[in-house]
Amino acid sequence: MTGSVQIAPAGDERWHALLSGRTQPAYRCLALRILMIRLKGDYVRAMPHPDAVVEELRAFFRDNLRFAGDDYRNIFGGTGR
Amino acid sequence: MTVAGLERSLFDRDAVAAMIAAGEALILAGEEHLLASLPAGRWIGGTIPYFMTAEAGGTFDRERLFVQRLPQGASVHWQGLLDRDALPRLDATGPDNGYTVILMPSQSEVHRDFALHAIEWPGLFRRPLVGWVTGVALDQVGIDTPRVFDGATATASADRAVVMHVALPDDRHARVDIVNLFTQADGPALTFDEGDGGFTVEHVNVDGVRRRLVDHLAEQGIDTRLPLVADYNGAMINVAIANIDAATGRVTFFAPAFPGTIYRFAAPVEDYERAFAAQIAPRTGDLAFGCNCILNYNYAGLEGRHTGDVTGPMSFGEIAYILLTQTLVYLTIERD
Q: If you count residue pairs, one on A and one on B, with CB atoms under 8 Å apart, how many are there?
Protein backbone atom coordinates (compact mmCIF):
# COMPACT_ATOMS: atom_id res chain seq x y z
CA MET A 1 0.00 0.00 0.00
CA THR A 2 1.49 3.28 -1.04
CA GLY A 3 -1.06 5.76 0.21
CA SER A 4 -0.55 9.06 -1.58
CA VAL A 5 3.09 8.39 -2.47
CA GLN A 6 3.82 7.55 -6.08
CA ILE A 7 6.75 5.24 -6.54
CA ALA A 8 9.49 6.68 -8.73
CA PRO A 9 9.34 5.52 -12.35
CA ALA A 10 11.51 2.66 -13.51
CA GLY A 11 13.65 5.02 -15.56
CA ASP A 12 14.76 6.98 -12.52
CA GLU A 13 18.53 6.75 -12.33
CA ARG A 14 18.40 6.30 -8.55
CA TRP A 15 17.09 2.74 -8.93
CA HIS A 16 20.17 1.87 -10.94
CA ALA A 17 22.46 3.65 -8.48
CA LEU A 18 21.05 1.53 -5.65
CA LEU A 19 21.15 -1.76 -7.50
CA SER A 20 24.62 -1.23 -8.90
CA GLY A 21 25.94 -0.21 -5.49
CA ARG A 22 26.97 3.25 -6.66
CA THR A 23 24.93 4.58 -3.78
CA GLN A 24 24.76 2.60 -0.57
CA PRO A 25 22.35 4.15 1.92
CA ALA A 26 22.06 2.67 5.40
CA TYR A 27 18.81 0.72 5.15
CA ARG A 28 16.61 0.62 8.26
CA CYS A 29 14.09 -1.97 7.18
CA LEU A 30 15.05 -5.64 7.67
CA ALA A 31 13.24 -6.82 4.55
CA LEU A 32 15.07 -4.33 2.36
CA ARG A 33 18.43 -5.20 3.88
CA ILE A 34 17.89 -8.86 2.97
CA LEU A 35 16.25 -8.31 -0.41
CA MET A 36 19.02 -6.00 -1.61
CA ILE A 37 21.58 -8.76 -1.08
CA ARG A 38 19.91 -10.75 -3.85
CA LEU A 39 18.84 -7.89 -6.08
CA LYS A 40 22.34 -6.46 -6.38
CA GLY A 41 23.58 -9.81 -7.67
CA ASP A 42 20.57 -10.15 -9.96
CA TYR A 43 21.23 -6.67 -11.34
CA VAL A 44 24.79 -7.50 -12.33
CA ARG A 45 23.73 -10.78 -13.95
CA ALA A 46 20.83 -9.14 -15.78
CA MET A 47 22.88 -6.44 -17.46
CA PRO A 48 22.37 -4.97 -19.97
CA HIS A 49 18.66 -5.69 -19.42
CA PRO A 50 17.97 -5.03 -15.73
CA ASP A 51 14.35 -3.87 -16.12
CA ALA A 52 12.87 -6.84 -14.24
CA VAL A 53 15.20 -6.25 -11.28
CA VAL A 54 14.28 -2.58 -11.11
CA GLU A 55 10.63 -3.54 -11.26
CA GLU A 56 11.04 -6.00 -8.39
CA LEU A 57 12.50 -3.28 -6.19
CA ARG A 58 9.73 -0.88 -7.19
CA ALA A 59 7.19 -3.59 -6.32
CA PHE A 60 8.81 -4.07 -2.91
CA PHE A 61 8.29 -0.42 -2.05
CA ARG A 62 4.80 -0.42 -3.53
CA ASP A 63 3.82 -3.41 -1.38
CA ASN A 64 5.61 -2.40 1.82
CA LEU A 65 5.80 1.36 1.86
CA ARG A 66 4.10 1.62 5.24
CA PHE A 67 7.07 0.08 7.00
CA ALA A 68 9.71 0.80 4.36
CA GLY A 69 8.69 4.42 3.95
CA ASP A 70 11.63 5.82 5.89
CA ASP A 71 14.02 4.04 3.55
CA TYR A 72 12.10 5.22 0.50
CA ARG A 73 12.14 8.82 1.65
CA ASN A 74 15.83 8.55 2.47
CA ILE A 75 16.52 7.40 -1.09
CA PHE A 76 14.06 9.51 -3.02
CA GLY A 77 13.73 12.52 -0.79
CA GLY A 78 10.08 12.03 -0.02
CA THR A 79 8.89 12.50 -3.56
CA GLY A 80 8.06 9.69 -5.89
CA ARG A 81 7.58 12.01 -8.89
CA MET B 1 3.99 -4.93 26.64
CA THR B 2 3.13 -8.58 26.47
CA VAL B 3 2.27 -10.74 23.52
CA ALA B 4 -1.24 -9.69 22.48
CA GLY B 5 -1.93 -8.70 26.08
CA LEU B 6 -1.21 -12.12 27.51
CA GLU B 7 0.03 -12.41 31.04
CA ARG B 8 0.52 -16.11 30.53
CA SER B 9 1.83 -17.91 27.50
CA LEU B 10 1.69 -21.59 28.48
CA PHE B 11 -1.67 -23.33 28.82
CA ASP B 12 -2.77 -26.88 29.41
CA ARG B 13 -4.39 -28.82 26.61
CA ASP B 14 -7.98 -28.33 27.81
CA ALA B 15 -7.59 -24.59 28.10
CA VAL B 16 -6.30 -24.41 24.53
CA ALA B 17 -9.13 -26.64 23.31
CA ALA B 18 -11.57 -24.21 24.93
CA MET B 19 -9.94 -21.28 23.12
CA ILE B 20 -10.29 -23.13 19.83
CA ALA B 21 -13.92 -23.99 20.57
CA ALA B 22 -14.55 -20.31 21.28
CA GLY B 23 -13.32 -19.49 17.79
CA GLU B 24 -10.01 -17.93 18.71
CA ALA B 25 -7.28 -17.94 16.06
CA LEU B 26 -4.06 -19.34 17.51
CA ILE B 27 -0.47 -20.13 16.69
CA LEU B 28 0.59 -23.03 18.88
CA ALA B 29 3.79 -24.77 19.90
CA GLY B 30 4.19 -27.90 21.96
CA GLU B 31 4.70 -31.62 22.03
CA GLU B 32 3.13 -33.74 19.31
CA HIS B 33 0.72 -35.62 21.57
CA LEU B 34 -0.79 -32.34 22.76
CA LEU B 35 -1.20 -30.83 19.31
CA ALA B 36 -2.62 -34.08 17.93
CA SER B 37 -5.31 -34.12 20.62
CA LEU B 38 -6.73 -30.68 19.78
CA PRO B 39 -10.01 -30.16 17.95
CA ALA B 40 -10.15 -28.67 14.48
CA GLY B 41 -10.30 -24.90 14.31
CA ARG B 42 -8.48 -21.75 13.37
CA TRP B 43 -5.04 -22.71 14.53
CA ILE B 44 -1.70 -23.86 13.26
CA GLY B 45 1.00 -25.49 15.35
CA GLY B 46 4.41 -27.04 15.44
CA THR B 47 6.35 -29.40 17.67
CA ILE B 48 8.83 -28.03 20.17
CA PRO B 49 9.00 -28.30 23.99
CA TYR B 50 11.21 -25.26 24.68
CA PHE B 51 9.73 -21.83 25.23
CA MET B 52 10.46 -18.32 26.35
CA THR B 53 7.47 -17.58 28.55
CA ALA B 54 6.12 -14.40 30.07
CA GLU B 55 5.52 -16.08 33.41
CA ALA B 56 8.69 -18.09 33.98
CA GLY B 57 11.27 -17.10 31.39
CA GLY B 58 12.94 -19.93 29.50
CA THR B 59 11.07 -23.19 30.09
CA PHE B 60 11.15 -26.81 28.99
CA ASP B 61 7.60 -28.15 29.16
CA ARG B 62 6.19 -31.32 27.60
CA GLU B 63 2.68 -31.03 29.06
CA ARG B 64 1.57 -27.56 28.08
CA LEU B 65 1.14 -25.62 24.87
CA PHE B 66 2.54 -22.22 24.05
CA VAL B 67 -0.19 -19.93 22.72
CA GLN B 68 0.15 -16.87 20.54
CA ARG B 69 -3.22 -15.32 19.74
CA LEU B 70 -3.73 -13.18 16.67
CA PRO B 71 -3.70 -9.48 17.50
CA GLN B 72 -6.93 -7.57 18.00
CA GLY B 73 -8.70 -6.87 14.73
CA ALA B 74 -6.71 -9.47 12.81
CA SER B 75 -8.33 -12.39 11.02
CA VAL B 76 -7.24 -15.59 9.33
CA HIS B 77 -7.21 -14.89 5.59
CA TRP B 78 -6.02 -18.36 4.57
CA GLN B 79 -4.32 -21.32 6.18
CA GLY B 80 -3.10 -24.66 4.94
CA LEU B 81 -0.27 -27.09 4.31
CA LEU B 82 2.12 -26.49 1.43
CA ASP B 83 4.38 -29.08 -0.16
CA ARG B 84 7.71 -28.28 -1.76
CA ASP B 85 6.11 -27.64 -5.14
CA ALA B 86 3.65 -25.09 -3.75
CA LEU B 87 5.96 -23.44 -1.24
CA PRO B 88 7.74 -21.04 -3.65
CA ARG B 89 4.40 -19.28 -4.23
CA LEU B 90 3.38 -19.18 -0.60
CA ASP B 91 2.56 -15.50 -1.00
CA ALA B 92 -0.17 -16.13 -3.57
CA THR B 93 -3.00 -16.77 -1.13
CA GLY B 94 -2.23 -13.90 1.24
CA PRO B 95 -4.15 -10.69 1.93
CA ASP B 96 -3.44 -7.22 0.57
CA ASN B 97 -2.63 -6.02 4.07
CA GLY B 98 -1.36 -8.36 6.75
CA TYR B 99 1.38 -10.81 7.41
CA THR B 100 2.22 -14.49 7.10
CA VAL B 101 3.26 -17.07 9.68
CA ILE B 102 5.00 -20.21 8.44
CA LEU B 103 6.15 -23.30 10.35
CA MET B 104 8.19 -26.09 8.80
CA PRO B 105 9.59 -29.37 10.12
CA SER B 106 13.32 -29.49 10.78
CA GLN B 107 15.31 -31.55 8.29
CA SER B 108 12.38 -31.80 5.88
CA GLU B 109 12.68 -31.04 2.18
CA VAL B 110 10.57 -27.92 2.59
CA HIS B 111 12.99 -26.76 5.29
CA ARG B 112 15.92 -27.36 2.98
CA ASP B 113 14.26 -25.72 -0.02
CA PHE B 114 13.27 -22.70 2.01
CA ALA B 115 16.73 -22.31 3.51
CA LEU B 116 18.52 -22.55 0.19
CA HIS B 117 16.14 -20.79 -2.17
CA ALA B 118 13.50 -18.67 -0.43
CA ILE B 119 15.35 -15.41 -1.03
CA GLU B 120 14.98 -16.08 -4.78
CA TRP B 121 11.23 -16.69 -4.70
CA PRO B 122 9.08 -14.02 -6.31
CA GLY B 123 6.63 -12.63 -3.80
CA LEU B 124 8.62 -13.59 -0.72
CA PHE B 125 8.86 -9.93 0.27
CA ARG B 126 5.30 -9.08 -0.70
CA ARG B 127 4.25 -8.91 2.94
CA PRO B 128 5.91 -9.51 6.33
CA LEU B 129 6.84 -13.16 6.83
CA VAL B 130 7.76 -14.77 10.15
CA GLY B 131 7.88 -18.29 11.51
CA TRP B 132 10.03 -21.03 12.89
CA VAL B 133 11.39 -24.50 12.29
CA THR B 134 9.74 -27.19 14.38
CA GLY B 135 11.81 -29.61 16.42
CA VAL B 136 11.86 -32.09 19.25
CA ALA B 137 13.36 -32.40 22.71
CA LEU B 138 17.13 -32.38 22.36
CA ASP B 139 17.43 -35.87 23.82
CA GLN B 140 14.97 -37.11 21.18
CA VAL B 141 16.73 -35.77 18.09
CA GLY B 142 16.80 -38.58 15.55
CA ILE B 143 14.14 -40.48 17.50
CA ASP B 144 11.07 -38.27 17.40
CA THR B 145 9.97 -36.51 14.24
CA PRO B 146 9.38 -32.76 14.01
CA ARG B 147 5.90 -31.99 12.69
CA VAL B 148 3.57 -29.15 11.81
CA PHE B 149 -0.20 -29.11 12.24
CA ASP B 150 -2.94 -27.46 10.22
CA GLY B 151 -5.72 -27.02 12.74
CA ALA B 152 -8.33 -26.33 10.07
CA THR B 153 -8.25 -29.99 9.14
CA ALA B 154 -6.49 -31.28 12.28
CA THR B 155 -3.80 -32.67 9.98
CA ALA B 156 -0.18 -33.27 10.93
CA SER B 157 2.72 -33.31 8.51
CA ALA B 158 6.42 -34.08 8.68
CA ASP B 159 7.16 -33.05 5.11
CA ARG B 160 5.05 -29.98 4.44
CA ALA B 161 5.02 -26.43 5.77
CA VAL B 162 1.96 -24.95 7.39
CA VAL B 163 1.07 -21.37 6.53
CA MET B 164 -1.35 -18.91 8.08
CA HIS B 165 -1.96 -15.66 6.23
CA VAL B 166 -3.27 -13.04 8.64
CA ALA B 167 -5.29 -10.06 7.42
CA LEU B 168 -5.11 -6.73 9.25
CA PRO B 169 -7.49 -3.76 9.28
CA ASP B 170 -6.56 -0.99 6.86
CA ASP B 171 -5.33 1.31 9.61
CA ARG B 172 -2.71 -1.14 10.84
CA HIS B 173 0.33 -2.80 9.37
CA ALA B 174 2.86 -5.40 10.44
CA ARG B 175 6.60 -5.01 10.77
CA VAL B 176 9.22 -7.73 11.22
CA ASP B 177 12.49 -7.28 13.01
CA ILE B 178 15.21 -9.35 14.61
CA VAL B 179 17.56 -9.19 17.55
CA ASN B 180 20.86 -10.84 16.85
CA LEU B 181 23.31 -10.52 19.71
CA PHE B 182 26.17 -11.63 17.53
CA THR B 183 28.45 -9.31 15.62
CA GLN B 184 31.43 -10.10 13.47
CA ALA B 185 34.68 -10.39 15.40
CA ASP B 186 37.96 -9.16 13.99
CA GLY B 187 38.84 -12.52 12.50
CA PRO B 188 39.64 -13.45 8.91
CA ALA B 189 37.07 -13.25 6.14
CA LEU B 190 35.58 -16.67 5.40
CA THR B 191 34.04 -17.36 2.00
CA PHE B 192 32.80 -20.44 0.18
CA ASP B 193 33.36 -21.23 -3.47
CA GLU B 194 30.51 -22.28 -5.74
CA GLY B 195 29.86 -25.91 -4.88
CA ASP B 196 31.41 -25.57 -1.41
CA GLY B 197 28.47 -23.91 0.36
CA GLY B 198 25.22 -25.29 1.73
CA PHE B 199 24.27 -27.02 4.95
CA THR B 200 27.38 -29.20 5.01
CA VAL B 201 30.79 -27.93 4.00
CA GLU B 202 34.34 -29.14 3.97
CA HIS B 203 36.38 -26.34 2.44
CA VAL B 204 36.42 -22.63 3.12
CA ASN B 205 38.54 -19.73 1.94
CA VAL B 206 40.26 -18.08 4.90
CA ASP B 207 41.25 -14.59 3.77
CA GLY B 208 41.26 -16.08 0.29
CA VAL B 209 43.26 -19.22 1.09
CA ARG B 210 41.31 -22.43 0.50
CA ARG B 211 41.51 -24.98 3.31
CA ARG B 212 39.43 -27.35 5.40
CA LEU B 213 37.11 -25.55 7.81
CA VAL B 214 37.64 -28.21 10.45
CA ASP B 215 41.37 -27.49 10.43
CA HIS B 216 40.78 -23.75 10.73
CA LEU B 217 38.47 -24.33 13.70
CA ALA B 218 41.02 -26.50 15.48
CA GLU B 219 44.03 -24.30 14.81
CA GLN B 220 42.31 -21.12 15.91
CA GLY B 221 40.63 -22.75 18.91
CA ILE B 222 37.29 -21.31 17.82
CA ASP B 223 34.35 -21.75 20.18
CA THR B 224 31.91 -23.53 17.87
CA ARG B 225 28.95 -22.28 19.87
CA LEU B 226 29.63 -18.98 18.11
CA PRO B 227 28.08 -18.68 14.65
CA LEU B 228 29.51 -17.45 11.41
CA VAL B 229 28.07 -13.99 10.82
CA ALA B 230 27.40 -12.23 7.51
CA ASP B 231 26.53 -8.56 7.12
CA TYR B 232 23.38 -8.19 5.00
CA ASN B 233 23.39 -4.43 4.52
CA GLY B 234 23.48 -3.91 8.28
CA ALA B 235 21.48 -6.97 9.33
CA MET B 236 23.71 -9.56 10.96
CA ILE B 237 22.74 -13.02 9.65
CA ASN B 238 24.10 -16.10 11.42
CA VAL B 239 25.12 -19.54 10.26
CA ALA B 240 25.31 -21.71 13.37
CA ILE B 241 27.38 -24.86 13.58
CA ALA B 242 25.36 -28.03 14.18
CA ASN B 243 27.96 -30.77 13.97
CA ILE B 244 31.61 -31.44 13.21
CA ASP B 245 32.44 -34.84 11.79
CA ALA B 246 36.07 -35.36 12.70
CA ALA B 247 36.31 -38.50 10.58
CA THR B 248 35.25 -36.84 7.33
CA GLY B 249 36.27 -33.29 8.17
CA ARG B 250 32.82 -32.05 7.23
CA VAL B 251 31.04 -29.33 9.18
CA THR B 252 27.24 -29.18 9.22
CA PHE B 253 25.31 -25.96 9.82
CA PHE B 254 21.78 -25.20 10.99
CA ALA B 255 21.40 -22.83 8.04
CA PRO B 256 23.24 -22.85 4.74
CA ALA B 257 26.41 -20.93 4.02
CA PHE B 258 26.15 -19.15 0.69
CA PRO B 259 28.95 -18.83 -1.86
CA GLY B 260 29.92 -15.24 -2.47
CA THR B 261 28.95 -14.09 1.02
CA ILE B 262 31.64 -12.92 3.42
CA TYR B 263 31.41 -14.48 6.89
CA ARG B 264 33.40 -13.96 10.06
CA PHE B 265 33.07 -15.81 13.33
CA ALA B 266 31.09 -13.94 15.95
CA ALA B 267 32.43 -12.12 18.95
CA PRO B 268 31.42 -13.70 22.29
CA VAL B 269 28.34 -12.42 24.12
CA GLU B 270 28.91 -11.72 27.80
CA ASP B 271 25.37 -11.59 29.17
CA TYR B 272 22.59 -12.78 26.86
CA GLU B 273 19.69 -11.78 29.13
CA ARG B 274 20.91 -8.21 29.55
CA ALA B 275 21.87 -7.91 25.89
CA PHE B 276 18.44 -9.08 24.69
CA ALA B 277 16.67 -6.63 26.98
CA ALA B 278 18.85 -3.79 25.78
CA GLN B 279 18.42 -4.52 22.09
CA ILE B 280 14.68 -5.26 22.05
CA ALA B 281 13.53 -1.96 23.51
CA PRO B 282 12.20 0.48 22.52
CA ARG B 283 9.35 -0.37 20.13
CA THR B 284 6.44 1.58 18.78
CA GLY B 285 4.08 -1.28 17.93
CA ASP B 286 2.37 -4.09 19.81
CA LEU B 287 4.03 -7.47 19.79
CA ALA B 288 2.06 -10.09 17.87
CA PHE B 289 4.61 -12.86 17.35
CA GLY B 290 7.97 -13.92 18.70
CA CYS B 291 10.38 -16.82 18.55
CA ASN B 292 13.97 -17.47 19.45
CA CYS B 293 16.56 -20.17 18.90
CA ILE B 294 17.09 -23.36 20.86
CA LEU B 295 20.82 -22.65 20.61
CA ASN B 296 20.41 -19.37 22.47
CA TYR B 297 18.36 -21.27 25.08
CA ASN B 298 20.94 -24.00 25.37
CA TYR B 299 24.24 -22.16 25.02
CA ALA B 300 23.25 -19.13 27.05
CA GLY B 301 21.48 -21.00 29.85
CA LEU B 302 18.22 -19.12 29.33
CA GLU B 303 16.13 -21.50 31.44
CA GLY B 304 14.41 -19.30 34.02
CA ARG B 305 15.75 -16.15 32.37
CA HIS B 306 14.00 -13.69 30.07
CA THR B 307 14.72 -12.13 26.70
CA GLY B 308 13.16 -8.76 27.27
CA ASP B 309 9.38 -9.00 26.87
CA VAL B 310 9.48 -11.14 23.72
CA THR B 311 8.10 -14.63 24.26
CA GLY B 312 7.68 -17.60 21.97
CA PRO B 313 8.98 -21.02 21.08
CA MET B 314 12.73 -21.67 21.22
CA SER B 315 12.99 -23.29 17.83
CA PHE B 316 15.27 -25.22 15.51
CA GLY B 317 15.47 -22.22 13.20
CA GLU B 318 13.81 -18.84 12.99
CA ILE B 319 12.22 -17.22 9.98
CA ALA B 320 12.15 -13.53 9.19
CA TYR B 321 11.69 -13.66 5.41
CA ILE B 322 14.60 -16.12 5.27
CA LEU B 323 15.90 -18.85 7.57
CA LEU B 324 17.91 -17.53 10.50
CA THR B 325 19.70 -19.18 13.41
CA GLN B 326 20.63 -18.02 16.91
CA THR B 327 18.37 -15.04 16.37
CA LEU B 328 15.28 -13.63 18.06
CA VAL B 329 12.49 -12.78 15.62
CA TYR B 330 9.48 -10.64 16.43
CA LEU B 331 6.58 -9.04 14.61
CA THR B 332 4.78 -5.93 15.74
CA ILE B 333 1.49 -4.36 14.73
CA GLU B 334 1.60 -0.63 14.20
CA ARG B 335 -1.17 1.87 13.63
CA ASP B 336 -0.83 4.26 10.69
A: 58
